[in-house]
Amino acid sequence: MSRSSSLKATLGIFYIIVAVTIIITQYNIHFSSMEVTPVRTDHRDGRFYVYLDHTLNFGARQDVPTHTSWDAPIIWEGMFDPDLHDQTHFEANSSVALAVFAVGRYLEFYLHNFLTSAEKHFMLGLSVTYYVFTDYPEKVPKMELGPWRSMKVLQVEKHPRWQDVSMMRMKTLAEFIESDIRHHCNYVFCFDVDQVFTGRFGSEALGDSVALLHAHFYTLPQHRFTYERRPTSQAFLETGDFYYHAALFGGSWENMKNLTEACLAGIMEDKKNKVEAVWHDESHLNKYYWLHKPTRVLSPEYCWDRRLYDINIWVTRLVWVKKHYRQTRV
Ligand code: GAL
């Protein structure tokens, strides 16, 4: 290499180092200058208010919407400082219940991988209790859990139809929040079992009422959303904000109690009227979030379908795994 080209190469490396240093410094200045103020929500004059969370950097992502029309944040990679959130929740002594239903053959197909991946990625550093609801408690894998983590295995009946297994989660959850969870945990999340954690799913996802954007619908226009469109169902929706996915939903135990009770009431009323919403509990959940706006919305990073491609998905935190419908929905 000649002297002049080696000088150019050295200069090039120098410029790259300077550029990277400037980017890192800007990032740190932004986050270290942020105040840690919790999100506040309230209901006044019959209206619903959410105050923007100052611990989030809404401008960090120009490529995607970072808040809803009612000012709830939509959480994407790059918008939050993980350490700041973890520290805030650690100091607040936040504790989280992770509820998962592993009924029938769902247990043998999915539960082990779901739980081992949760141990690696879900709310690390916080107190977590797994509530595993199953019809076969003795088949739940014995696992060594990390510090501040525990598991409760609870027996539930297996409904003959998978649609009822899914819908009746609302009943079981409402009952357990009242009898058990509320005495031990501030937050509750309910997850489908046929998924695995692949990246951080941390305290930035905690909020009063947390909903998830469905990976298949968040870029589609409203008329493509698979809401229940028949007015005879309690889940009927003509218009909405987003299409939310029931693969996970969560919030404070108080809000989760309201949500599960409201969805259950809709499901039972539909049963009385001999109508079943097109996407079962998910349809009722969408109706609920239309009437009671979530205070935090999770981007599809938090439940991604790897068959899709989207340049805006920088990380995946939880992914769908292959659905064995023929063997599991029996
Ligand atoms: C599918 C998903 C279902 C349901 C449906 C709604 O992609 O597997 O669980 O959410 O979308 O249209």
Structure characterization notes:
- The protein has 330 residues and is α/β, with parallel strands linked by helices.
- It has one domain (58-328): Alpha-Beta Complex (Spore Coat Polysaccharide Biosynthesis Protein SpsA, Chain A).
- The protein is 35% helix and 17% strand.
- The protein contains 8 helices and 12 strands.
- It has helices spanning 3-32, 82-91, 106-121, 162-167, 169-184, 253-272, 280-291, 325-328, and strands spanning 41-44, 47-50, 74-75, 95-102, 127-134, 149-155, 187-191, 195-197, 209-212, 248-252, 296-298, 318-320.
- It has an 8-stranded mixed β-sheet with strand order 3-11-9-10-7-4-5-6, with helices on both faces.
- Strand 4, helix 3 and strand 5 form a beta-alpha-beta unit.
- Helix 6 packs across helix 7.
- The relative contact order is 0.14.
- The model is unreliable at 24-40 (pLDDT under 50).
Short description:
The chain is an alpha/beta fold and 330 residues long. The protein is built from 8 helices and 12 strands. The structure holds beta-D-galactopyranose.
Number of strands: 12
Q: Measured on Cα atoms, how large is the radius of gyration?
A: 22 Å
Q: How many domain modules?
A: 1
Q: How helix-rich are the residues, as a percent range?
A: 25-40%
> What ligands does this structure carry?
beta-D-galactopyranose
Estimate the mean pLDDT confidence.
90
Class based on secondary structure composition and strand pairing: alpha/beta
The CATH level-2 architecture is identified as Alpha-Beta Complex
How would you name the CATH homologous superfamily? Spore Coat Polysaccharide Biosynthesis Protein SpsA, Chain A
Largest pleated sheet: 8 strands, mixed
Beta-strand fraction estimate: 15-25%
Helix count, per DSSP?
A: 8
Quaternary state of this entry equals single chain
| Strand order in the sheet with the most strands | 3-11-9-10-7-4-5-6
Separation, N- and C-terminal Cα atoms: 69 Å
Here the CATH topology equals: Spore Coat Polysaccharide Biosynthesis Protein SpsA, Chain A
| CATH domain class name | Alpha Beta
